Input
Amino acid sequence: MATTKPRVTVTLDPFSHEVISALAGLQSRSRGAVIAEMMEAVAPTLSRTVALLQAAQEAPAKVKAQFVGAIAEFQQEIDAASNTANSELDRLRQHIDAPPVGWDALSPERRAQAIKDGFTPETYDAGLPNATRRWARETPV
Output
C-alpha cells in the first residue's frame, strides 16, 4: 500500500550507513524504519529548536547575544550528557561476553604498528569498519 507520508532522501557517511544497517538487521527491520523511528524520537526537540531559532531571528541584537551564550552553555550540557551516555554504553558492553572490537581487539604488536602509522585509539575506532579494517588486513606486523 502506498504511503501518504512525505519522503526524503538522505546521504550517509559509510560508518553511519553501516551502523544503521547493523541495527536494522539486529531488529529485523528496514533501514528506513530505523531512521524514521530515530527522527520521530528527536522531532519534539527539533520542533522546540526551530521555535527558538525563529524567535532569535526576530529578536534585537542584545537578546541575540544572550541567546548565543545560552545556546553555547546548552550545547556543553548536551555534549556532557552524550558523553555520559556513551560511557555507560561502553561500560555495559564490557559486561557482555562479546569479543573486543577495534583498538581493544588489537594485539600489542598491532597496536605498536598502528601507532607508528599514525593511529590513536580514537582515530582507529572512528575509522571502523572501512579504512581501519583495510589497514588491519593489508599492514604486516
Residues 10-58 form one domain. The radius of gyration is 21 Å. The CA atoms of residues 114 and 120 lie 8 Å apart. The chain has a mean pLDDT of 80.
